[in-house]
Amino acid sequence: MPELETNGATELNTTIADALAGVGWIVIPNFLSADELSHLQQLATTRKRAFAAAGVGREAAHQVRQDIRGDAVLWVENDDAEMREANQRMADLQQSLNRELYLGLNELEWHFARYPVGSFYQRHLDQHRNQDTRVVTVVQYLNDNWTELDGGQLRIYLDDEQHIDVTPHGGTLVVFLSNRFEHEVLPAQRERLSLTGWYRRRTN
Ligand SMILES: O=C(O)CCC(=O)C(=O)O
Ligand SMILES: [Fe+2]
Question: What sequence ranges are listed for the domain Fe2OG dioxygenase (predicted)?
Fold first, then answer.
C-alpha cells in the first residue's frame, strides 16, 4: 500500500502552490528533516567522484564555461534506491502543484550541485531559449553552519530589479517559476552543496 502523505506535508505543498500562484516564489527553511539532510549529505560525499563539471547551452551548443558557472553536478536517477524518499517528496509536491495549479508537470529532472570555493553561477533564467519545458525550479541546500560570510547566496531578481538573497542553509527549500525570475549564485567562500531541479512539462 502506498504511504499516505501526512497532513503536514499536504499543507506544506498547498502553501508552496499558493505562493507560486501568487508572488511566484517561496523559501521554506527546514524543509528537510535532520535525518533527510544528513542522508543526502552522505550520498553526495560517497558519490563525490561521479560529479562532472556543469555546462551551459543545449546539445551542440553545450560547453563548460567556468566564467559563467563553476559547479559540478551529478544527476539523480528516478530509480535510485538511495533517493527513494527524496524523489517521493518531490513527486508528492509535483502532484499537489498539478492538482492546484493545473500545471501539467510530468517529470522532475534534478541533480546534486557542488560549488567549489570561489565559484558562482552568473545571472540567468532557467528556461532554455526556444524551449519552455522547465516550469518550476526547486533547490534544496545541503550545507551545515552556513553564515553570511560564506557568500554563495542565491540572488533572485524580482520585478523592478529588486532582489532577495537566500542563504543556502542546510534543509532550506526554494521554489520559483522558471520562466519568471532571473537569478544568480554569488561567489561561495566555502564549498557549497545543493540539490537543484526542474519540474518539466514534456512537449511531445
Ligand atoms: O544553487 C542555487 O541556489 C541555484 C542554482 C541554479 O540557479 C541553477 O542550477 O540553475
Ligand atoms: Fe538557475
Answer: 104-201
Ligand 1 atom with the smallest distance to the CA of 174 is: 3
Is-contact 64 53, C-beta < 8 A? yes
Q: Residue 127: give the domain boundaries.
A: 7-200
User: Are β-strands 134-141 and 121-124 bridged in parallel, bridged antiparallel, or unpaired?
Assistant: unpaired
On whether the CB atoms of residues 48 and 127 are closer than 8 A, the answer is no
Q: Which three cell numbers stand for residue 126?
A: 532557467
In the structure grid, which three cell numbers stand for residue 87, read together?
A: 524523489
In tens, the pLDDT along 84-108 reads 999 999 999 999 999 999 999 999 9
Residue 29 Cα to ligand 2 middle (Å): 19
Phi/psi at 199 (5° precision) = -80, 130
CB 123 within 8 A of CB 135: no
Write out the H or E segment, with its range, that includes residue 53. strand 52-53
Residue 106 lies in a domain: yes
Q: How many structural domains does the chain have?
A: 1
The pocket around ligand 1, CB under 6 angstroms, is made up of 113, 121, 126, 139, 154, 183, 185, 194, 196
Largest CA distance in the chain: 49
Is residue 137 over pLDDT 70? yes
Distance from the CA of 87 to the center of ligand 2, in angstroms? 20
Instruction: Report yes or no: 84 and 111 within 8 Å, Cβ to Cβ.
Output: no
